[in-house]
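Please check what follows.
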Amino acid sequence: MNNIVIGILIPFIGTALGAFCVFFLKNEINALVQKALLGFAAGIMVAASVWSLLIPAINMSGEMGRLAFIPAVIGFIFGIALIYGMDRLIPHLHLNSTEPEGSKSSLKKSTLLVMAVTLHNIPEGMAVGVVFAGLLSGESQITMAGAFALTIGIAIQNFPEGAIVSLPMKSAGSSKKRAFSYGILSGIVEPISAFFTILLASFVLPILPYLLSFAAGAMIYVVVEELLPEASAGEHSNISTIGFAIGFLVMMVLDVSLG
């Protein structure tokens, strides 16, 4: 059980370490570095969706023969639909954007930025929770090493996110402690959503392939709708492409070598 607790906290630790950058970096992350990190995060999430979520979901449905893809397709579609709905309803502001999205709100820009990061941290927390719930239920397709590969991969891509939330707030005039607190706040939703998913472990096993692919769909939506456009905007989009490739390879190596 201790391993489960550590596993669901690892992604949050990645966010916290990134947010901690406000205490030793004077300015915001360089634009080129920011592009590379966003591309890297996108590569991690895509690889995690494929190797840690979709492929196990299809393998678990092997008794369906040629129709083994059906649970993965259904779950994937519902995952995209959920985040699309949240994207339309919850007020938030993407990095380097001037116009908030979602329903109209009078919230501060800093709060909207935190909500944007929080919005796409939810499916990451769900993905971690679903994998560990499957592990607790004894599903043979999921191993402890494979589950930790997913959490480590998400933690790696959470590091730049924590910095991207906190550093602009410090540059805008917030104190270092306040900026750090907002970075922490953006990541706390991950262990919370993972924890509640694990609490439902007894109900998870019969629909585990659907839930794994559901988390994959939610993560892919975030990558395509948010991370890649932000990473590719303006000049030097090739930097984000290289970052994406590196992130994808890192997550693939983690999943195959540890899984």
Notes: The chain has ten helices and no strands.
